[in-house]
Each structure stands twice: as structure tokens, then as C-alpha cells.
Amino acid sequence: MPVFEWKEFFSVVHDDLDDQHKQLFAIVDDLYEGTRRDSDASDELLRQTIAALGTYIRTHFADEERLMRIAGYPNFARHKLAHDALIARVAEFDTGLNEGGVRRAAGLLPFLVGEWLSDHIAFEDQQYAGCVNSHARNPRAKYSALKELESTA
């Protein structure tokens, strides 16, 4: 059973984003499991997990930010700064891992769990949910969003 488990109160009521948030929980749980073991295999698992986290959050944030921009979310700039801070923090740990500090990955956990999974998804992401979801329910807005996505693809 996962230590960091998705709960319904984290939902932003957007299936794709909720699925991505669930995947973030799974990656953080893998990171936790990797820090509990003391072996070369777990060191490699930690390296892979941190790399996967870095890759995944970039993809997730791009999706989330695109939806916020399309919906005209008024606090987009502040939200993006929080995303950029997490990307920088994960990159810091990734650099540390590559320089031989594998066990430093455990230091990323309190930040990910306390500040990110709990606070950011439960509170910050909830703030954009209404804007993004009401925009998505408006047929004219859906059409405009599709045209905008097509033009950026």
C-alpha cells in the first residue's frame, strides 16, 4: 500500500490533470521506497526516480499551464513561479545525485510531501480548478481552446 496516497480532496475535477497528479503521487511514493533501502540497486532506483520526476513534472506543468493560459486564469504568473521553483529544486537534487550524493534524495521528500503534494495540489491547484473547468464547460471557449492548441502544435 502506498505511503503517499491520492485522496479525492486533491481532485481538480479535471480527469487528465487528476490522473497526472495521481502519477506524481506514485513517483513520490517510489522515491520514498528507494530511500528506505540501502543498496546499490536502490541508489540506481533513486537516480531513475528523480530523473522520472523531473521529466514528469515538466510535462505535467506544461499541460496545466496551457490550460490555465487558455482559460485566462488570473493568477497564472504566480502559479507558474511555484512550478518553476519545483523544477529548480528537483534539478538541484538531480545534480547532487549525479555528483554522488544519492542519499541526499531523502532530503527532497519533506519538500515534495509537505510543500508540494500537500500544499500545492490541495490548495494552489484548487484555485485554478474553477476557472479551467468553467472555461472547459463553455462550448464557445472549448472551440477557442481547440483553435489555440492547434495553432501552437
In round numbers, the mean pLDDT is 79
Order of helices and strands: HHHHH
Number of helices: 5
Shape type: elongated
Number of E-type strands: 0
- The CATH homologous superfamily is called Hemerythrin-like
Structural class: mainly alpha
CATH architecture label: Up-down Bundle
CATH topology: Four Helix Bundle (Hemerythrin (Met), subunit A)
Our count of domains comes out at 1
* Helical coverage, percent range: over 70%
**The level-1 CATH class:** Mainly Alpha
Q: What is the CA-based Rg, rounded? A: 17 Å
Beta fraction: under 5%
Largest sheet geometry: none
N- to C-terminal distance: 39 Å
As residue ranges, the low-confidence spans are none
SSE topology sketch:
Blueprint: H1 15-36, H2 40-71, H3 76-98, H4 108-137, H5 139-152
Helix pairs in contact: 1-2, 1-4, 2-3, 2-4, 3-4
Short overview:
79% of the residues lie in helices and 0% in strands.
